[in-house]
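Team,

Forwarding the record for the chain on the shared tracking sheet. I've put the sequence and predicted structure together so nobody has to dig through attachments.
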Amino acid sequence: MTTPLSVAFNSDRTRAAFRFSHSKGNIITAEMVELLTEALSGLDENPHLKLITLEGAGADFSFGASVPEHVPEEIARVLPAMHELIYALLDAPAPTAAVVRGRCLGGGFELALACDFIFASDDATFGLPEVALGVFAPAGSVLLGERIGAARATRALVTGETRSAAELLAMGLVELVAPGAALSDGVDRWFTERLARRSAATLRYVVQAARAGLRTRVRALLPELERLYLRDLMQTRDAPEGIAAFLQKRAPRWQDR
């Protein structure tokens, strides 16, 4: 049985590599959210850490959050836990990076957006397609606008369209693009050239300073969007219908209310 999450350190413990796995496109389940949050909380004990990477096993980073866990009777438990993971990434004690191959969608893209850097394979695609299910991505709604600007983020959220790694590199969201087979080597070189010679103690404070504005805005806005999702959106007929239609593999029957 595949382990949902593994954490590996290099020999001098300056890098922590998180690798998460799910048989269906590395779907972000409640179990995985709990494991990631717990693993991040243990990193404070490592004074040498200079980079934390998140990577999905196999061909894709993540297809997104578990849709069955977004039904009305589950979402009030699942969504706040996901947001605690977003806060944990923004509070991480070292620079963070998502290493993305293939599809990076929905909740998977939200995790990548909460990282300081995104490294991507040249075939990677990114998007927040939740609108097709009659819902939206609360964390993505805050983070994407912060990363690429309100106009571009609004288009991505309203249309659900995906973007290529090359497009997001041009926007400044993606740090590095490489062929899939060369991505790991590219990340290694980037680390060696840019972080390896820095003080881990200094980097801990640098990332706190660099994220200060973002953390303040996310912590102010995300609870409001969580309430909008749980208290208002989930009371409509269309949000539960969109989830049900996806699970039943049929077209949604929108009532526009």
